[in-house]
Design a protein that fits this description.
4 domains, three-stranded mixed beta sheet, six-stranded mixed beta sheet
Length: 602
């Protein structure tokens, strides 16, 4: 990598200007003006709370004023953290067509691709195979591209699928490059070209249909922690180091396939840039999804998380790592730019040059040794080297630590999505994963619609009462040493009827998950509150003015919870809300109502 960098730097610094560029987003001045005005309003509100607190005459008024000031301080802090994404957002452009002016194709750095899968039932082997084939077909020197698949499920079916995929690849890869295809995922290609098959296409499709690879598996033991995906990725770093040790690593989820064969060339526009070197640790591409219905009822685009916020991060220290679609410089996993952390075995270092054949006994023996379940004991793997342990979200934690060590990152968001994934189409899979006026404007400016924004903010509330709530409870239980159900893999298997309901914009419940209980309770409570408030207004209650805002808020939430009312009262299909959940939530809502009334009136 360093030799390639030296070659590109020696060519001309002016050429670097033609590899990539960036600019501030046009709405940045508006964001800054809004922040200034909003800050004044917050300070005025806090000043009012402080005066009310100092003027308190009894414990009751003091408690109320104190709770208000604490709540608004917390909300102000949350707003400030969100504001950081708005003050300096940038958009980047790459010019891969100019790479040949900087470095010859024969001198491109090698690339190792890591693909992770865990459950052959929720992540069908054919989906994993399609992802692998899509990256194997990159417009990149074949001899410099290696693909590693981590199968934590230990599935014989996945292994068999890759054995068959290896045969199919000998037909598919030449076909893609000969015909200069852009869509190189076999499944996506044949879905888009069903009526256009030539005789050669038909031959390939027949082979594809009977294809169901190389697939390394790490050892696991009940006595040794496996550290989930971070552990799997660290095993791949070590195993790949013994075989190819490419200076650049691409991390992909099994369902996130390549949608642009020129993606590796885009990342080279930065890694070969003298402006970005030597502190550039990784380049993150956004997660995009196919198959989302027109109104995105589950907010699956994650436009804030995967597009708006990363642009803001990029204008500061650089984007986070989002678990997939990220190119890493291998050196970044071994200490900071100026503080190299050597591994315990020299062959695992980022500068080691592999001289033996991959099939040699020495290489295979070392690969088996470094992938054993006990290898990481008494080493720095997971703490100072590789992907970091200690958090279920290894992606955020690892990128945070890399930034702390001095590495920078870049958010690359080309017009054609570099990678496409499969969005969940049931509410249980969605919640198992994870200043409205301004948000609406930014959401629409980023290519969304008002209806998509509405669904996105609704899903924010739904997650707050389900996955976030249960995640908080799980954290406290683990802190006290109480075991929990752990991490669930999102299912990628879709039934025809389920797909049909999703395309119609109908929420999919179906399973009696405990996560639905607090959501249903909130839906029932707000609906009852709204109608009780309306009755009071009709009767001419003297507290009508004081009740107006409460009724408005209850009505706002009731409108957001309409899919729940529909699933409770009007639906009879398999995706309706289970009766067990409705009965449980109704009973608990009644208990909460009685308990609150007892406390307030006694």
């Amino acid at each position: 990598m360093e030799n390639v960098r030296a070659t590109s730097q020696a060519s001309s610094h002016t050429i670097d200007d033609h590899l990539h560029t960036y600019s501030l987003l046009p709405y940045t001045p508006t964001n800054r003006a809004f922040a200034a005005i909003y800050s004044v309003a917050i300070f005025a509100l806090l000043f009012h709370h402080a005066r009310s607190l100092s003027a308190s005459t009894n414990i009751s008024s003091f408690s109320i004023s104190f709770s208000f000031i604490i709540s608004d301080l917390l909300l102000a802090f949350m707003w400030i953290t969100t504001l950081s994404f708005r003050v300096n957002p940038i958009h980047r452009r790459e010019f891969p067509e100019n790479l040949q002016r900087v470095v010859k194709e024969a001198d491109f750095p090698a690339l190792d691709v890591f693909i992770c899968t865990a459950d052959p039932y929720k992540e069908p082997p054919m989906s994993v195979v399609n992802t692998a084939l899509s990256v194997m077909a990159y417009d990149y020197p074949t001899e410099k591209l290696s693909v590693y698949v981590s199968d934590d499920g230990g599935s014989q079916l996945t292994l068999f699928a890759f054995m068959e995929a290896a045969k199919f690849a000998s037909y598919w890869l030449p076909f893609c490059k000969t015909n200069n295809l852009v869509e190189r995922n076999p499944d996506a290609y044949f879905a888009l070209n069903q009526a256009k098959w030539s005789s050669e296409n038909q031959k390939i499709k027949e082979i594809d249909l009977k294809s169901v690879g190389f697939c390394p598996r790490r050892q696991k033991s009940t006595t040794s922690p496996h550290n989930f995906k971070a552990g799997a990725l660290n095993v791949l770093i070590r195993v790949s180091a013994t075989m190819t040790n490419a200076p650049i690593i691409l991390v992909l989820d099994c369902d996130m396939y390549s949608n642009d064969p020129k993606t590796p060339l885009r990342q080279l526009c930065y890694f070969l840039s003298p402006q970005a070197w030597p502190n550039l640790g990784f380049i993150q591409f956004p997660q995009r999804f196919r198959g989302i219905n027109k109104d995105d009822i589950y907010g699956s685009e994650y436009k804030y998380v995967f597009e708006t916020n990363p642009k803001g991060f990029d204008g500061l220290v650089g984007s986070n790592f989002y678990g997939t679609g990220c190119f890493f410089h291998r050196r970044a996993f071994f200490g900071g730019p100026s503080s190299f952390q050597p591994p315990e075995v020299a062959e695992l270092g980022p500068y080691n040059i592999v001289k033996r054949s991959i099939k040699s006994k020495e290489v295979m023996a070392l690969a088996h040794h470094v992938s054993s379940c006990t290898y990481e004991k008494h080493t720095n793997w997971g703490s100072k080297i590789g992907f970091r342990y200690g958090s279920l979200v290894e992606d955020y934690f690892t990128s945070f630590m890399l930034h702390c060590e001095g590495w920078k990152s870049i958010f690359c968001n080309p017009e054609r999505p570099a990678f496409l994934g499969y969005a969940p189409i049931s509410i249980i899979d969605v919640i198992n994963q994870r200043a409205y006026g301004q948000d609406l404007i930014i959401f629409v400016l980023e290519g969304g619609t008002v209806k998509k924004w509405w669904n996105d903010q609704r899903m924010w509330m739904i997650r707050g009462l389900s996955s976030y709530l249960f995640g908080l409870v799980e954290y406290f239980l683990k802190s006290f040493g109480i075991s929990t159900h752990g991490f669930n893999v999102t299912s990628k298997v879709v039934e025809d009827e389920q797909r049909k309901r999703y395309d119609q914009g109908i929420f999919e419940f179906g399973v009696p998950s405990p996560m639905f209980v607090p959501l249903t309770m909130a839906a029932i409570l707000n609906l009852v509150s709204f109608f009780v408030g309306l009755v009071q207004i009709i009767r001419g209650s003297k507290f009508m003015e004081e009740m107006f805002m409460q009724i408005f808020i209850a009505g706002y939430f009731a409108v957001n919870f309409w899919p729940f009312y529909e699933a409770i009262f009007f639906r009879n299909d398999k995706g309706k809300l289970p009766t067990k959940i409705t009965v449980t939530a109704t009973f608990l809502t009644w208990v909460a109502y009685k308990a609150t009334g007892f406390i307030l009136f006694n």
